[in-house]
Amino acid sequence: MLRYVTTNPGKVREAESYLGDEVARLDFDYTEVQAADLAPIAAYGAREAYRHADEPVLVDDAGLFVDGFDGFPGPYSAFVEDTLGVGAVRRLVDRELDDPRAEFRCVLAYCDGAAFDASPDPVDRDDRVAAAAAGADRDAEETDPLPVKLFEGVVRGRIVEARGDGGFGYDPVFEYDGATFAEMDPEEKNGVSHRGRALERFGEWYAER
């Protein structure tokens, strides 16, 4: 069984449409490290979750990257949503930018404790935490990092005034092809979203794992 590590049931529903009954939610509060990119955050979480569950795990990290703000809020999207609110981000874009273009990005990190064959998708092998915890006097095999396979999905759009009652997070203010994510039904959104695109790539690879 593959454990999707999240407290958000909406993410699990999106994952189920690609992975079916192969996936189940794991409610585990892993450490969200501070980083300028999504990949190391997701990889760290996947390693920590795998050590906790001792089962194959999938962790995602996603963010809204506004072009005119050099990608802000990016990896800090959840923090900005919790502290300032989605509406504040939309108003800031409206007030400060002539160009409201932005993109959603999602990185899925998979860890099952085993190595991966080479492929176009990146593998994160930098597990500084495990090495530091083991110490210099421990056997080298105990400091080997847990490899984490990464899959990315990106969707381009623009920031607009909030519309729609569906979705979660920044969905009401992110417009793609004339509709916000919050205006789309779950199936439609999942077919074009950043998470859906990452899940599709992961699902194709996982079927051969």
TrEMBL record:
Q: Which InterPro entries match?
A: ITPase-like_fam, RdgB/HAM1
Top-rank taxon: Archaea
Is Hydrolase one of the keywords UniProt gives this record?
Answer: yes
Q: Which of UniProt's keywords are assigned here?
A: Hydrolase
Tell me yes or no: is Cytoplasm among this UniProt entry's keywords. no
Tell me, what's a Pfam family for it? Ham1p_like
| GO MF entries | hydrolase activity
Q: Which residues form the signal peptide?
A: none
Q: Can you tell me which family this protein belongs to?
A: Belongs to the HAM1 NTPase family.
Protein name per its UniProtKB record: Non-canonical purine NTP pyrophosphatase
